[in-house]
Amino acid sequence: MLRYTVNSLLEWKDGTESTNIERLLWMDDEIAYTIDVNKNKVPYIRRQKDIEDALAGGKAEIKDDDEFIVVLKEQDIPEKHKKIRDRAWEVIRDMVDKEPDIFQSAFRGKLIKRASETCGLSESWILEYLKRYWKRGKTCNALLPDYRNCGAKGKERKAGNVKRGRPRTNQSIIGEGVNVTEEIKRIFRIAVNKYYYTTAKNSLTLTYELMRKEYFSDGFKEENGVKIPIIKPQAEIPSFGQFRYWFEKERNIKKEITSRYSNKKYQKQYRPIIGSSLDGVFQPGQFEIDCQVGDVYLVSRFNRNWVIGRPAIYAVIDKFSRLICGLYIGLETGSYAGAMMALLNATMNKVEFCKQYGIKIEEKDWPVHHLPETIIADRGELEGGNIDNLINILNVKVQNTPPYRADLKSAVERFFGLTNERVKPFLPGKIDLEGRERGDNDYRTAAKLDLHQFTQIMIKCILYHNNHYHLDYYKRDQDMLEDNVSCIPIELWNWGIANRGGMLRTTSEDVVKLALMPSDIATVTPKGIRYKDMYYTSKSILKSGVFADARTKGLRKIKISYDPRNMEYIYVYNDNPSEYEKCFLVDASNRYKDRAIEEIEYLLAVEKMQRERNKDNVAQAKTQLIAEIEDIVQQAEEDYKSETSTVESDRQRVKNIRGNRNAEKTVRRLEEVFDLGSDNEDYQSPDKEKETLEMDTLELLLKKQKEVMRDEGSDDTKR
Hints:
DDE-type integrase/transposase/recombinase; elongated; RNaseH_sf; alpha+beta; coiled coil; Integrase_cat-core; Transposase-like_Mu_C; 15% strand; 719 residues; six-stranded antiparallel beta barrel; five-stranded antiparallel β-sheet
């Protein structure tokens, strides 16, 4: 195997730190021509034996890295530089092919002289082209000019007596200016830290003005009792351009964003992105959960004229496969109950779940009914004491992301964005994020969907996403590429379960429900177990007599768990949740059947609002009733005073109550008798007829009273 070839670099060592580097230009079995790449010398001859001995003895070695060769792509070379290169190449192109004669001084001199006469260039320039060609790897690009090395790029020039930089345009007026010294740069840093890197968000111009006021002034003057700094003239201070130049040179973007705004903003919008959301994820079992308010208004199933607002969409997604594992649609955002219902849905049989919404699927369409090893959420839903059941009973790890770091749950956040794109254009009552202008229709009045129907739409979206959506952004690893796994969530999920096992867990559905379902306190009443105006009972509880005890011993509290999606039943338990009783709605509460807790709470809120709104009307009507009663009573008192005798005592008034009652009953019977026809066809005026009737009734009443009194008197005499 050849140890070195033409164009190889030989590094010669003389026992000190100094070394010589030569490039091999030509060689045969005995000799080689080389050139020192660091010295202005022409090629010279070396014996092959000397090179071999030096390499064997460690006095020389072959350099692997070639820092002298010019590597530039043709499209990156400026046209001006290409012209210089091509012109030089035309001069030496025929010479460099005449190896090894070109390395001999006499032969080379003749060729250079002839080329000088032909091209009109000096012999020294032509020799410089040849040496540059040999030193830099014997390529055409070796003849490119070294303009890229000009200007000491990246190096700071030392300040001297002469003003650096472009001369000022109006030097006669504003002066020549000053150089920026180390002391001035120190002032720049102090001013930027003091006035720019602050929450005041001062502009760079204002920062310069404040710096000039504080650090570039000559004493003070007093006007109206105020000390005013006297700033130095422009000729004696650095200009704003110099200040801006040094600011940009030493600018710290991270410090600027964090100090002027917040570290949260930097982490969210400006931090470097060098990782991937799949880093450290090798199999299914890490779920992300989040909630987003839907961009549509819904109506109530109790009354479709009631607009109940926008739904809260809770979604659970597998980080590895991007498969949607759980769903819950409610009306409360950021609640523990909503998050737990979504996680509970992830453990449910999806065939039965879809059946509740009239959607028929097979097990293979949505084969997820597992608990994850880890759940990733933000600090809203899964923080606090409520999450203890998830950790202690189900042994699920919980990772809460920092505030305002939605990017750490990119999979579920992306799903929400995709869902909006898929369904929003077709939904009545969708919101316009750009807002409404005067005269525009109110999109809330266009709401038509209820909570049940919107959930049906979301299920359809999830089935499409899981089984058909291609993840264009997904980066498959080597194992997936070998198995040719499609970037479709269900395919990635099935492949992960089959080949990497996953970190999923299967737990009894009852245990999961009791651990995840929201719990609350209900009241045992004579009518049943009351919770939010709903009454429940069961056969065993009814036989136990607790409802009868509630009538005699009073009401008592009891612990329950419930499924917010369907309030037709609840689970009642005491201190041990595993010993529970399932209770169902009583017939009197049938209006709540098949309704979600949000719908029921909205109905109760509406009814309460209606009661509150009607309180003034009720109070006004009751006041009117009292006033009318008082008026009638007053009239009765006046009639009593005008018609009764003052001779009768109170005893005489109550003595004949039975007789008076019988007389009154007789008269009432005559007045209320059904008279379907009359033989008397004589016509009387209504007023006269009414007056005659009243006189006849009064006479009849007095007559009957006397008869009753006479009969009662005779009875007393007999006794």
